[in-house]
Amino acid sequence: MLTRSITARKNCIRFLATATNTVDQQEVQQFQKFVEGWWDEFGPMKALHSMNKLRVPLIRDGLVNSGLVQKKRIDSPLPLEGLSILDIGCGGGILSEPLARLGGIITGIDANLEIVTVARSHADLNHLDINYLTSSIEDHALGNAEKYDAVVASEIIEHVSQKSAFIEACAKCLKPNGSIFVTTLSKTRLADFVAVFLAEDVARLVPKGTHQYEKFIKPHELQRLLEDNNCRTELVHGMFYNVVTNTWHWCSNTSVNFALQATKLEKVEDCD
Q1: What is the span of the domain harbouring residue 98?
Q2: Could you tell me which residues are beta bridge partners of residue 260?
Q3: What SS3 state is found at 236?
Q4: What is the CATH number of the domain that holds 129?
Q5: Is the separation of the CB atoms in 236 and 217 below 8 Å?
Q6: 10 Å Cβ neighbour count for 138?
Q7: pLDDT tens for each residue of 59-78
Q8: Pairing relation of β-strands 257-264 and 231-242?
Q9: pLDDT tens digits, 82-110
C-alpha cells in the first residue's frame, strides 16, 4: 500500500510539473466574435445548434452501450440522471444545456470569460443548474482527477495546438470505465476545402480564420493519442452537414467531420 501511495504521489508530481496550458490565445480572441450571436439558432452558431441532433444521442446512447446508463432508462425523461459530465470548450452552453435537461450533472469549461458569462446567463434564464468555469482543461485536471463519468470535447480539439497534452488532461479527468466523446474535423484536403474555403471564404457561414488546416486531426491520429492515455476506441462515425437544409447526418466517410467515442480502461496493478 505504501509503495502504491508513493507511486501515485510521484505520478501526480510529474503531471503537475509537466502540465501545459493548451489554450491558444489567438483562438480565444477569434471566438470573441461569436459572443453576441451564440444563442441565435440562425446565426453563426447555427451548425452547432443543428449538430445537437447527432451529438446528444451519441453521448446518451454511448453511455448506455458502455453500461453507465441502464438500457431501461434510455426512454425515460432523465436517462443521464446522476452522471457527471465535463463539457470542454463549452462556449455558450449549446451542448451543456440539453445534457443537463437529460439529467446529467454538467460542468462546462471554456477559456473565454465573456462566453462563459453568456453560458451562465442563459442557463439561469432557463433554470438549469450547470457549473460553468473559466478554465483550461489542464488547469481543471489538476484538481479533478478521475471525477467524471463522461468527458465531451466537441468541436474543440481542432482549435488546440498541443493535442497530446490536451488528450492527456481529458483522460486524467475521466473515471475508469468512463467515456470520452470527441467531434472534430479530419486533417484532409477535402476538409480544408469544405470547412475553410467553402464555409469561411465563399459561403461566409463563419468568420474567416475560424479554422486552420494544420490543427485538424485524422481519426487514427486521435485514436493513437487516446490509446497512449489508456483509452480504447469504441466507435468512429463520419458526419455530413447539409448547408442548404442546416441538418447533420451520420455517414461512413470520415474525411471531413467525424465523431469518436473511447472508454478509459481500468489500470492493471503491477504485481511485486
Answers
A1: 2-264
A2: 182, 236
A3: strand
A4: 3.40.50.150
A5: no
A6: 21
A7: 999 999 888 887 767 778 89
A8: antiparallel
A9: 999 999 999 999 999 999 999 999 999 99
